[in-house]
Amino acid sequence: MSLYLVDRERGGALHAQIARQLEQEIGQVYGLGAWLPPETELALRFGVNRHTVRRAIDHLVDGGLLDRRHGRGNCVIGTLVDYPIGSATRFTETLQAQGIAADTRVLHKQIIPANSTVARRLKLGSGEQVYWIETLRHADGLPLCVGSHFLPAERFRQVGDLYEGGSLHQHLQDLYSVAVRRTECLVTAKLPQGDDARLLSMPRNRPVLRIKSLNVDAASSVPVEYVVSRFRADAVQLSIKL
After folding, report:
1. Which of 74, 133, 77 is nearest to 104 (CA)?
2. Max CA separation in the chain (angstroms)
3. Cβ–Cβ < 8 Å for 153, 131
4. Residue 124 DSSP SS3
5. How far apart are CA 114 and CA 111, in angstroms?
6. What is the pLDDT of residues 96-149, one digit of tens each?
7. Which of 36, 58, 76 is the endpoint of a domain?
């Protein structure tokens, strides 16, 4: 990165000039999930002290462009991921279509008794067994979404053994010939709970977008999946079209 000379006479406050320059570079040089150079390196580049750079970074953090992570540095979050939610939306395909690298990691898999909400949404008997699958999804390396997936264990007996990541809906289609269709989507803004803030590398005082979705077998309209997803509200823009 070339040396940038701040105007000490007519350019206004030095930290404001540096913030404007870095803001221009975010999205052009530093994409979503990228790390800015260390503040000591930026101070050398701009010819100012570290305190001035810190004030510029503070401005971008407050503006939602950067996320300061203790012990790691400053990460770009200001380029919102445009995430359309439709009847057949799939996370991996949706992001790849935008040129964004996507991956889904399985955090937990377990057969549990369905609670009253899950049983009602999946039209199961009270306490009937379901697969609970917890996933963490990344976009260009940035943790974007934690998902709690509930599927009828009786119908999808092999999911727990065979699903290891990637598109769960593609897995259901490949293994069970089930094409999944979303029929309901409820969105609320909540503060992160449990381990969500840690998994999403975000402060606990910033909200997540919690989405409750019901997915059915497209051929029979029988409920096959109830999902509670938590997206980073500072990194995603939802467009819902069912």
Report:
1. 133
2. 74
3. yes
4. coil
5. 9
6. 777 878 889 999 999 999 999 999 999 999 899 999 999 999 887 788 899 999
7. 76
Range of the domain at 184: 81-241
The number of residues in the chain equals 242
Cα distance between residue 161 and residue 143, in whole Å: 25
Pairing of strands 129-139, 102-113: antiparallel
**CATH number of domain containing 203:** 3.40.1410.10
Strands 102-113 and 223-232: unpaired
Nearest to 56 by CA among 11, 32, 20: 20
Task: Looking at the structure, tell me whether residues 42 and 133 fall in a common domain.
Answer: no
Kindly report the pTM of this predicted structure. 0.73
Q: Is residue 4 part of a domain?
A: no
Are residues 86 and 184 both part of a single domain?
Answer: yes
Q: Are residues 170 and 221 in the same domain?
A: yes
Q: Is the separation of the CB atoms in 156 and 173 below 8 Å?
A: no
Same domain, residue pair 72 and 88: no
Q: How far is CA 29 from the centre of its chain?
A: 21
Q: In this structure, what token pair is assigned to residue 225? A: 């999946």
**Each residue's pLDDT tens digit, 28-87:** 788 767 889 999 999 999 999 999 999 999 989 887 788 887 778 898 876 667 777 877
How many whole angstroms separate alpha carbon 134 and alpha carbon 232? 16
Residue found under tokens 């889904």: 104
Q: Which of 48, 76, 104 is the last residue of a domain?
A: 76
Residue 183 inside a domain? The answer is yes
Computed over its alpha carbons, how large is the radius of gyration of the chain?
Answer: 22
